[in-house]
């Protein structure tokens, strides 16, 4: 895990860039032209962090409290968070005629969680184009459904663009008032939204490989992302369909049950949209939901969680231990010990944050444990699904969730290197076989 000084400095600069960006957008949201009634500073920071991290959690009613200016600022911040602040900065460098230095590419690699420097330059050129193209197609496919709900053409166009951005970047903010419950009988709309969430959750490096290098053998990274992403979508849909067929989905037709299950499976690992009343769902479904949130999407996507490659490495390591094999193997490739150790650290780090934060919120909130746990998992995995707790958070709880959302976006390593100053020890110790389990 320990890196050289330049890499550690890039982690710290990466952290500071996101802090400055959150504060900047918070100030914009606090402007009188952005909101209708008084907006608290902490609420502005909370919403700004939520938009940039891709969480979509809000302590206020976005539809009712923000003006059109505020909603536009929010849409811009969602797009910036989805694309990556440092990728946008790299665009500015190139527009000014400056080349991307190794330092610039190192920062972009942190932003995209991508270690392959060969892809960084092409990523910087492709990310914005891919985003606008996919979101544009999404707008065309969803406009009629939204226009049927919103009569004003101008308003319907803006809401469609806003929703397309929110879906592709896995954000979870919506301007429908009743959320997606009003669309639970609209299979086309739900499936188009699910497709946007799914593509966004693949991550830009994987999308670039499959779009521009389709004749070449794909990297192990991209193959793992596509396989795990698709598998979890199917597994999640099957589980939600089976668990909620006679519960949360009982009032809708079988075709709507299927489309809602697929939609909910896609949304649960990234966007946080819900098309059914969560309070009507079984505890088993909520547990499945939190597990999917914990896993999340691809490493270089706006999705949160421990990420797909981390989960794949953990599964491969478990298999290797069970079979008493020395190497951790995925796709006939031995995974490096550093990648295995990092995966373990990420998984334990997320679990520790969830447990500690849940204990803290349980001391400051009066709601039941499952409501608090879902809120914490939702924040740290930047998913945004809630059982209604977000609008009733105490000041201290808001601060905790802001920290969790930020960590969920920038990653465990960035937090560790920003807070701590580790030095690699040269000491060597005798080995001891310690019984465990």
Task: Please describe the topology of this protein.
Layout: H1 5-30, H2 41-53, H3 62-65, H4 68-83, H5 85-95, H6 102-111, H7 117-149, H8 153-168, H9 187-202, H10 204-212, H11 220-244, H12 254-268, H13 283-295, H14 308-322, E1 328-330, E2 333-335, H15 337-364, H16 369-380, H17 395-410, H18 412-419
Antiparallel strand pairs: 1-2
Nutshell version of this structure?
The protein is mostly helical. 65% of the residues lie in helices and 1% in strands. The chain has one domain.
- Number of strand segments: 2
Mean pLDDT: 85
Instruction: State the low-pLDDT regions, or none.
Output: 93-98, 100-104
Could you tell me how far the N terminus lies from the C terminus, measured between alpha carbons in angstroms? 26 Å
Q: What is the radius of gyration? A: 21 Å
Cross-sheet strand order for the largest sheet = 1-2
**Level of helix content?**
55-70%
* Portion in beta strands: under 5%
Tally the helices: what do you get? Answer: 18
Assembly type of the chains comes to single chain
| H-E string | HHHHHHHHHHHHHHEEHHHH
Explain what this protein looks like in three dimensions.
The protein has helices at residues 5-30, 41-53, 62-65, 68-83, 85-95, 102-111, 117-149, 153-168, 187-202, 204-212, 220-244, 254-268, 283-295, 308-322, 337-364, 369-380, 395-410, 412-419; strands at residues 328-330, 333-335. The protein contains 18 helices and two strands. The protein has one domain. 65% of the residues lie in helices and 1% in strands. By secondary structure, the chain is mainly alpha-helical. The longest helix is centred in the first third of the chain and has 33 residues, at 117-149.
């Amino acid at each position: 895990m320990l890196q050289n000084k330049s890499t550690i400095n890039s982690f710290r600069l990466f952290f500071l860039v996101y802090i400055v960006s959150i504060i900047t957008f918070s100030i914009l949201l606090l402007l009188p032209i952005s909101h209708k009634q008084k907006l608290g500073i902490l609420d502005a920071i909370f919403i700004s962090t939520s938009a940039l991290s891709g969480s979509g959690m809000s302590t206020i009613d976005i539809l009712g409290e923000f003006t059109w200016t505020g909603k536009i600022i929010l849409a811009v911040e969602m797009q910036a968070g989805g694309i990556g602040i440092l990728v946008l900065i790299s665009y500015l460098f190139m527009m000014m005629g400056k080349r991307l230095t190794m330092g610039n590419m190192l920062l972009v690699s942190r932003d995209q969680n991508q270690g392959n420097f060969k892809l960084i330059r092409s990523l910087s050129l492709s990310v914005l184009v891919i985003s606008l193209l996919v979101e544009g197609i999404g707008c065309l496919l969803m406009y009629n459904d939204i226009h049927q709900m919103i009569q004003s053409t101008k308003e319907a166009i803006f809401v469609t663009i806003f929703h397309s951005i929110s879906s592709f970047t896995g954000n979870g903010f919506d301007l429908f008032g009743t959320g997606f419950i009003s669309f639970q009988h609209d299979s086309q709309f739900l499936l188009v939204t699910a497709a946007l969430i799914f593509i966004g959750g693949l991550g830009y490096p994987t999308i670039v490989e499959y779009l521009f290098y389709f004749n070449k053998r794909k990297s192990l990274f991209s193959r793992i992302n596509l396989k795990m992403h698709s598998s979890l979508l199917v597994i999640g849909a099957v589980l939600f369909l089976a668990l909620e067929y006679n519960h949360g989905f009982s009032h809708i037709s079988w075709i709507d049950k299927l489309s809602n299950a697929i939609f909910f499976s896609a949304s649960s690992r990234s966007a946080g949209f819900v098309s059914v009343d969560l309070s009507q769902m079984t505890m088993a479904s909520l547990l499945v939901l939190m597990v999917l949130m914990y896993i999340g999407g691809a490493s270089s996507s706006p999705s949160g969680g421990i990420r797909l490659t981390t989960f794949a490495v953990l599964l491969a390591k478990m298999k290797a231990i069970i079979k008493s094999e020395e190497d951790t193997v995925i796709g006939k490739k031995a995974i490096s010990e550093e990648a295995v150790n990092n995966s373990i650290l990420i998984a334990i780090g997320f679990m520790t944050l969830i447990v500690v934060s849940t204990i803290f919120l349980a001391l400051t909130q009066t709601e039941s444990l499952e409501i608090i746990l879902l809120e914490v998992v939702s924040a740290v995995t930047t998913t945004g699904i809630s059982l209604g707790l977000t609008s009733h958070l105490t000041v201290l709880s808001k601060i905790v969730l802001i920290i969790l959302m930020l960590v969920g976006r920038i990653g465990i390593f960035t937090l560790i290197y920003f807070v701590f100053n580790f030095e690699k020890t040269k000491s060597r110790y005798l080995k001891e076989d310690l019984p465990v389990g």
